[in-house]
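To make this tangible, we now present a fold written out as tokens:
***
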Amino acid sequence: MPAHGILLGAYMAAWREISSGLRFPEGPIAMPDGTLLLVELERKTLTRIARDGARTIVARFNGGPNGAAIGPDGKCYVCNNGGSVWTEDQNGLRPGLQPDDYAGGSIERVDLATGAVETLYTKSDKAPLRGPNDLVFDGQGGFYFTDLGKARARERDLGSVLYARADGSGIREIVRGMLTPNGVGLSPDGKRLYVAETLTARLWAFDLDAPGRIRRTPAAFASPSGAQLVAGVGGHQLFDSLAVDGAGNILVATLINGGITVISPDGKSVRHLPMPDPLATNICFGGSDLRTAYVTLSAFGRLVAFEWERPGLPLHHLNF
């Protein structure tokens, strides 16, 4: 289809469609061979998108596959949120409340050569996993992930942030009591952890003292989770998953006001890049120079791409 120009300040992004007909895509991974991996939440699959847009199912899941990332063993690690009740109408496809057949959340690992799915974790040192959502690997053999929790008709879980070893040897809850923690990413120097909250549309940051060890801000009354507020946006919009570019800017996929919210590391600059779907759920970088941004547009099931103004941040175990 033809490219469409979208103005972001003085920067013009021309997006192009890579694939359509997806069933709520999320967790995109731009592979070195030029293909894209992503999950389809409603279809419950890990799907590979070829350069020409052709789709191949790599693995099938129970529950609800969500965020995904390549680990140190070359396998794909997937946050499984346990599933959702789905609605589809003129506004597109979207997940909702905890389903009747909900069996808990988990972290799963997929062998990309065989499609075999292995359950790595179903609980932390504190509690069972409820709704794992997104994850990011560090360079020390572990990964951070968010547990957004589940919602029911009259109540909602408080969420958490956890750190786990990729070999299955340990998992710890490092933050609890967040309201729908979703996107997660690391700063270029690996010393800050960013977490986006969905319902508050706020981006928080935690300074890291060591792998899986956060330094909480002393102002507990202002931030019970111990985080520092980077930015919050007003109006009717929600935050989803995120990526970080090479300059440290945080690009947060944004719902309702569908698009990408670009936030500087100090939070002083906040820009919005509109996208053609009310549910822009995730973004990743790929291409030979990591300047191609891939965005999952989930309400109407599309994967699109555009060239970003600078390279994205290389990811551990994928880009180096």
Observations:
- The domain at 4-307 is CATH 2.120.10.30 (Neuraminidase).
